[in-house]
């Protein structure tokens, strides 16, 4: 065995300021500071997010280093999220990473946030097996909904994606209509536990190939609620669990119909999910059901690696380190960033 590689990873693409320290593929620390400041607005306010990152980044990095019992001199490289995400938020993490790598004279590694959601499955964990290549990844978050064919660590092809809203947005916007706090996904999931998923039906979009659309269903839900409220102003309060369960069921149906098609048509039998919405309990349960129905192997991330975190940035950083895939001080953040 060679000398271990220690990587400090930073994630600041949206409203979480996160830092992690890895020893090879093992997580030594994984610290996340959320931003309560957005709750009052029912969604992320970009300007406030950048400011909160500025306030949080130094203490978050300090905590990550101290929890890992690592000092700056031990680090071999710094990895950061280049994009996609909110530009002002990304700039904070990138500038910090650049400065630190220059001060310590160690390599700087740029990471694609979406690749990180997928490669989070390669973090060492004795309770989990890692997917074999090739595999299909369903990446579902507040900003993205994609089906990706993954042939190797850095050989990924998007074969389907949303043409409008992300599925996480559909959860969050529905929650807003139901007067639930932001982010709405976890709340809808929780309320759905005691509801009937077949209580109400919502029309599912018809999309080409493996593509998705979630803007129509959001309008459908809004019209449905408005109609119901005409005859019963307390409709939402009285039926909140059934509404949440039915919306969640429809959204998961849409995801699984396309994923099923992709598995059948590509013949790829390894399937992984990732991103914030992969924390959803119904999605996790029903993905497991595909194993039997389609004779495939499914990979579900640990909860802490579903929503945004820096451990997933670190695992990509580690594999790029092994490939000597470094960047320099002229790199810039990218709000739109494909692989
Ligand atoms: O990956 P993530 O933290 O940030 C982005 O890259 O967008 O995903 C956040 C999204 C939010 O839309 C949030 O509502 C959703 O993930 N989410 C959930 C659950 N937990 C988080 N959606 C449904 N059920 C959940 N349990
Ligand atoms: Zn994300």
Runs with pLDDT <50, length 5+? none
**What small molecules are bound in this structure?**
5'-O-[(R)-(carboxyoxy)(hydroxy)phosphoryl]adenosine, zinc ion
Give the spatial strand order of the biggest sheet: 3-2-1-4-5
H/E series: EEEHEHEHEEEHHHHEHEH
The number of strands is 10
Structural class: alpha/beta
Separation of termini? 32 Å
Mind telling me the CATH superfamily name of the largest domain?
A: ATPase, nucleotide binding domain
Radius of gyration: 20 Å
- Number of helices, where a helix is a run of at least 4 consecutive DSSP H or I residues: 9
Largest sheet: 5 strands, mixed
Q: From the 3D coordinates, which CATH architecture of the largest domain would you assign?
A: 2-Layer Sandwich
Q: For the residues shown, what is the average pLDDT?
A: 96
Could you describe the 3D structure shown?
This protein is α/β, with parallel strands linked by helices and 339 residues long. It has helices spanning 46-68, 87-104, 113-119, 167-177, 184-192, 215-231, 235-266, 281-294, 311-322; strands spanning 6-11, 17-23, 26-33, 77-83, 108-112, 135-140, 145-152, 155-161, 270-274, 297-299. The strands form 2 sheets. It has a 5-stranded mixed beta sheet with strand order 3-2-1-4-5, sandwiched between helices. The chain has a 5-stranded mixed beta sheet with strand order 8-7-6-9-10, sandwiched between helices. Strand 6 (135-140) and strand 7 (145-152) form a beta hairpin. Helix 5 (184-192) packs across helix 7. The radius of gyration is 20 Å and the shape is globular. The mean pLDDT is 96. 5'-O-[(R)-(carboxyoxy)(hydroxy)phosphoryl]adenosine binds at residues 14, 141-143, 168, 171-172, 183-186, 189, 275-277, 279-280, 307-308.
């Amino acid at each position: 065995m060679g000398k271990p590689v220690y990587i400090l990873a930073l994630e600041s693409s949206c409203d979480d300021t996160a830092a992690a320290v890895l020893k090879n593929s093992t997580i030594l620390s994984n610290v996340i500071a959320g931003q309560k400041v957005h709750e009052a607005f029912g969604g992320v306010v970009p300007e406030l997010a950048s400011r909160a990152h500025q306030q949080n980044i130094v203490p978050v990095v300090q905590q990550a280093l101290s929890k890992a019992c690592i000092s700056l001199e031990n680090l071999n490289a710094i990895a950061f999220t280049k994009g996609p995400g909110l530009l002002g938020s990304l700039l904070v993490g990138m500038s910090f990473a650049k400065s630190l790598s220059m001060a310590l004279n160690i390599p700087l590694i740029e990471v694609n946030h979406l690749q990180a959601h997928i490669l989070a499955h390669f973090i060492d964990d004795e309770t989990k097996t890692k997917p074999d290549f090739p595999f299909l990844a369903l990446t579902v978050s507040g900003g993205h909904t994609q089906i990706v064919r993954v042939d190797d660590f850095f050989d990924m092809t998007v074969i389907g994606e949303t043409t409008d809203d992300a599925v996480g947005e559909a959860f969050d916007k529905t929650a807003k209509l139901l007067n639930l706090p932001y982010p709405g996904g976890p709340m809808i999931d929780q309320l759905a536990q005691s509801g009937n998923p077949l209580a109400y039906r919502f029309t599912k979009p018809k999309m080409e190939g493996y593509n998705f659309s979630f803007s129509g269903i959001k309008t459908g839900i809004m019209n449905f609620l408005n109609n119901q409220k005409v005859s019963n102003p307390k409709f939402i309060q009285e039926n909140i669990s059934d509404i949440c369960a039915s919306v969640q069921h429809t959204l998961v149906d849409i995801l699984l119909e396309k994923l099923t098609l992709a598995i059948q048509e590509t013949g790829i039998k390894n399937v992984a999910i990732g991103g914030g919405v992969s924390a959803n309990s119904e999605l996790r349960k029903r993905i497991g059901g595909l194993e039997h129905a389609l004779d495939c192997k499914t990979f579900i991330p640990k909860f802490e690696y579903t929503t945004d975190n820096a451990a997933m940035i670190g695992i990509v950083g580690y594999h790029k380190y092994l490939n000597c895939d470094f960047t320099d001080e002229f790199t810039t953040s990218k709000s739109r960033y494909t692989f």
